Amino acid sequence: MSWNKVAVVGAGLIKFGELFEQSYEQMAAGAFAAAVANVDKGFDPSAVDAAIVATQRGTLWGQEGIGGNTVPSAIGLSGIPCTRVENACPSGSDAFRIGAMVVASGVHDVVLVIGVEKMRDKSTQEGLLARAAAGHPLYNRGETAPVLFAPYATRHMHEFGTTPEMLASVAVKNHHNGCLDPYAHFRSEITVEQVLASPAVCSPLRLLDCCPQTDGAAAVILTTAERAAQFTDKPVYVAGFGVATDHPYLHEKSTFVGLPATTSAAGRAFAMAGVGPEDMDMAEVHDCFTITEILDIEDLGFVEKGKGGPASLEGHTALDGRIPVNPSGGLLAKGHPIGATGIAQLTECWWQLREEADERQVAVRRGFALQHNVGGRGSGVAVVNILTRNA
Amino acid sequence: MTDAAAASRHPVAVLGVGAAAPALRLAAADVGAAWGAAGAKGTVALCDADEDTLTLAWQAALDALDAAGVDPAAVPGLWWGTARPPFAEGPSHAYLATALGLGEQIEGALCSGSPHAGMEALVAAWDALAAGHAALALVVVSDALVPGLGTAGEASTGAGAAAVVLGALPQGPAPGAEGRGGRPATAAGPSTNGSSAPARLVARATRVIAAVDRYRADAAAATGDVYDGRLFREEVFVPLLARAGGAVAQAGGTPVTGWAMADPDGKLAGAVARRLGAPLVAGSPAGTIGDAGAAAALLGILPAWATGPESGVASLGIIGYGGGRATAVVTEVLRPVPGAARALARLAGGRRVPYVVAVKARGQLVAMSDPIAMGVPPTGAAFVRGNVEMLQLEGARCRACGTISTPPSIHPACTGCGGGELDVVRLARRGRVHTFVVNQTMPPPFQAPLPMVVVDLDDGARLMVQGASADAAALAIDDEVTLALRRYALERGVPVYGYKALRCAAGDGADAGAAGAGTLAAGAPSKEGGR
Predict the structure, then answer these.
(1) Which of A6, A83, A349, B43 is 20 to 30 A from residue B215's alpha carbon, by CA?
(2) Which helix (H) or strand (E) holds A295?
C-alpha cells in the first residue's frame, strides 16, 4: 500500500509563559487561531476533518480526564472526531506523527494537531515535584524531573571531560535565540558566568541549566500534498518520522552517556526520509536541561559521541553554526509546556523551512529540518519528525 | 528466690554480637543552653529523620549474624525488645524479620512497653533454647525514644541497638552443678560445633515494683519523666535493681565482678554497683550515645565481652529495667565474644549537631507545608506488592541471560533480553557508584541535600536509590557503597522503609562487615519459582 504524502499548511502558537490569566481552553483556542491565521490562502475552520490533541499531564492543573472532546468544544468545532495522545514529553511530536499517519492513510484529509499544557496552575510542590513520590511505591523514590537527566551529566563529565562551562554554553545560546523569538517565555541574554553562579538545583545542574515551567499551546494543520495548494504555495512536507522506546526506570539504563531511544527514533526517521543528519539545515531538539541537548546532538548524529560539549562551546550549534540547534530558544528559553512543546518545535521548523523566522532565520541549503523530543520516566520514549520543503 | 541455686538456669551460648548507633550526637550542654539550664555532660546519639529503632535493630542484627557466622535463613526465631516499636500496633516484628531475610517461618516475639523489653526478649529466647524448641536464637534490643521537649530526658535519652546470637547447649547436669565452659550442642549449627562457646548466660533474676517511672500515654508522641527523679532513684530504682542484682551476684561459678546497666541520670548505675559490691564495667558507650533504653544493658557489657577475661572465666552481670521491673542476668565470659570489638567501634565517633537540627531530626520541629504524599499509600495494593520485595531487596534473574531486573513485581520480562523465565533472588548489598546527582532542594518528607545514586551492585544488578545527606559533598563515581535500611517516610502516620546507598568509610570493605554483606548477597538462597 502506498501512503498519501502529507503537507503542513498552517502552524502557529501562542506566546509561551506563565499564563495564569488563560484557561486551558483559551490557550487551545489561541493556538488554533494562530495556526489558521498563518495559512497563506486562508482557512475555514470547518474544513478540519479530525483533530489530535496532545496534553501530557492534566493533573498539573487538577484535571485528570482531558478527553478528546475538550478541545473541539473549546475551538468551536464540537462534533469532529478527536483523540487525545499522551506519550510523555514527546506527546506533541507523537500527536503530529499520528496526525500525519491519519492523513497519509486517506481516512481524513485535513487534520488539526494541537498541543496544550497547563504547567503553572499548581505549585511546583503540588505539580512536578510530586513525581518524587510516583511510580513503584518504593523504588526510585526521590526521583524528581532533574534527577532523570542530571545523572547523565555526571557520567558524561566523567567519561568525556564535559565541563560545567560546556553545559552553560547551551543555555547561553538558547537564551540568545529566545531573545529573537517573540513567542519565547524568556527573552533575555544570559552569560556563562550567570549560569555557573545560579543556584544549584540538582547537582551538577544549576537553575539556568533547567527549562522553566511554562504554559502554552501550539497547533499545526495537516493535509494531503494534493490539497495543499488549496491553502498555500509554500507547503512543507512530512519527510519521515520515528518513535522508539527504552526501559522506563533509570536503573534499567544500559548507558548514562546517551539516550538509546533517541538514536533508534532518529534512525527510523532518517531511513523513512532517505536522508541523514548531514542533510539537516537545523534542528529543534529536546533541551529540557542543558545536558539533554548535548546528549541529543550526539545521539542524533550531528556530532560524535562525547563531542557534544566542545561542539556547543565552540558555537557549532549556534544560528550561524554548522548545525543550528534550537533557533526558537528551545525548551530552555522558549519553554516546555509538555503537550505543546513538540508542536511548537515543528512550527519553528515550518517557519525556518519557509524562511520566515526573521532575525533567527538559519541558512536553508538542503531543505530539511529535524524535530525531536525525548522523555517519559528515564527517557523511555523518543520521537523524531523530519520536515522538508522539497517537493 | 534469693539463693544462688534458684537464680541459676540451664545455660545458653553467646555466639556473636553486634551493635549500632545513629551518627548524630547532641551535646547535653547544647540542650542546657536551649532551655537555660547548665551542668549536664556528655552527648547522646539520636536518630536522623530516616532512622528509627527498626533501622538500628536491623544493622545490629546483621553484624551479630555475621559475627556468629550464621546464615539468616537458618535462624528459627527472632526475639526483639524495644520500648517503643515502630508500629505501636502493627507488623514491627514481621518487617524486621523480612528485612533481615529470616524467612517466613520465623518464630519468636516482640517485647515492648518499657526499656525492660530488652531483658524480656533475652530471657524469652533463652527459655526457647533451654526448652529445646530452637537451636539458635537471634535477640535484638534497640531503642530510639523521643524525649519530650524541655524534659530532663533530652540530655540523657540516647539511641542504639545490640544484637546477640544465642545457641542451645546440651542438657547436662542440674543447673548450678554444671562446670563452666559447657560444650555447645552440635545441633546448634556450624558455629557451635566442636568449640566451647565464647560466653554463656548462666543465671537470672527478676524483681518487680508497681511504680511509675518513665511513661507515655497512648496518644503522646514523647516520653515523659518521673515527677521526682531523685526520690525514685533512691527509694525505688536503686533498691529494685540491687535486689535483682543481688539475687544473681553469687549464682555463677564465681561472684560477679562487674555490672552493666542503663544510667539515665549518671548516678543510678553507680549507686546500684556500690550496693552490689562490684564496679561497673569500664568503657561503657553510654557517655557518648546516652541511655539507649532496651539496648543499654547489653551495650554496657560490650567492653568486657570484647576483651574477654585475662584468665579463666569472668562472671559479669547485666541489669535491664523499666516499667517497674528489673532483670539481672549473669554472663560467663571465657574469651572475647565474636563481634564485640566491632560492635564497640560502631558506637564510636558520630557527628555533633546543633540543638535545632536534633529537634528537627526527632520530628519535633516540622515545616508548616504539607509533605509530598506518596503516590501509593501504604494501605494500597501496589504498596503491598512492592513492600516485601523492597524489604528483601529482591531482583528477578533471567534464566536465559543472567540479567537481574529490579524489582520483580514490575518486571515480568527481562530488561536484558526480554525473556520471561525469571527467578527471584536477593540482591547484593554492596556495590559501586555508577553515576549520581545531588538534589539541592527538596520539600518534606525529603531532606536536602539528597543524593540519588545509581549503584552497580556486586552481583551485577543495578539500582537507583537515595543516598545519605552526609555523603552529598564527597560522593564520587566508583565510590564503594553499601545499602542500608532506612525509614523513607512517615506516610499518613505509617513508617515506610527502603534502602539507601551509604558511602563506605575508607577501609570498611576489609572488615567483617563486608563478609556480612556477602552472606546476604550471593550466598543467600534464592527463592525458586520462575515467572
Answers:
(1) B43
(2) helix A290-299
Q: Give A250's contacts in chain B (Cβ within 8 Å).
A: 454, 464
Same domain, B256 and B392: no
Do residue B461 and residue B350 come from a single domain? no
- The grid cell for B235 is 527509694
Residue-wise pLDDT tens digits, A171-211: 999 999 999 999 999 999 999 999 999 999 999 999 999 99
CA distance A356 to A139: 48
Residue B479 in contact with residue B459, Cβ under 8 Å? Answer: no
Does some domain include residue B530? no
**Residue A380 grid coordinates:** 523511555
Q: Does B441 touch chain A (CB under 8 A)?
A: yes
Cα dihedral angle (A191, A194, A199, A205), rounded to 10 degrees? 30
Count of alpha carbons within 13 Å of B5, Cβ hemisphere only?
2
Which grid cell is B139?
535477640
Task: Write phi, then psi, for A60 (nearest 5 degrees).
Answer: -70, -15
Instruction: Note whether B435 contacts A: Cβ–Cβ < 8 A.
Output: yes
Total domain count, chain B: 2
Kindly give, in sequence order, each residue whose CB lies less than 8 Å from that of residue A278, ignoring residues fewer than 6 positions away.
Answer: none
Does residue B367 belong to any structural domain of this protein?
A: no
What three-state secondary structure class fits B73? helix
In a shared domain, residues B306 and B188: yes
Domain identity same for B195 and B271: yes
List all residues 6 or more positions away from A118 whose beta carbon is below 8 Å from its beta carbon: A24, A27, A58, A60, A61, A215, A337
Q: Which residues form the domain of B20?
A: 4-361
Record: contact B437-A202, CB cut-off 8 A:
yes
Question: Residues B70, B15: contact at Cβ < 8 Å?
Answer: yes
All three cell numbers of B107: 518464630
Mutate to test the interface with A, among B98, B387, B417, B464 (most CBs of A within 10 A): B464
User: Could you say which architecture CATH assigns to the domain A144-209+238-388?
Assistant: 3-Layer(aba) Sandwich (3.40)
Which residues have C-beta within 8 Å of that of residue B330, sequence separation ≥ 6?
A: B7, B201, B202, B203, B204, B248, B251, B252, B256, B315, B316, B317
B220 CB-contact burial (10 Å; exposed 0-12 / middle 13-18 / buried 19+): exposed
ipTM field: 0.94
Cα gap A316→A319, rounded to integer Å: 9
Domain co-membership, B232 together with B163:
yes
- The 10s digit of each residue's pLDDT in A15-57 is 999 999 999 999 999 999 999 999 999 999 999 999 999 999 8
SS3 A251: helix
Question: Is the CB of residue A140 less than 8 Å away from at least one CB of chain B?
Answer: yes
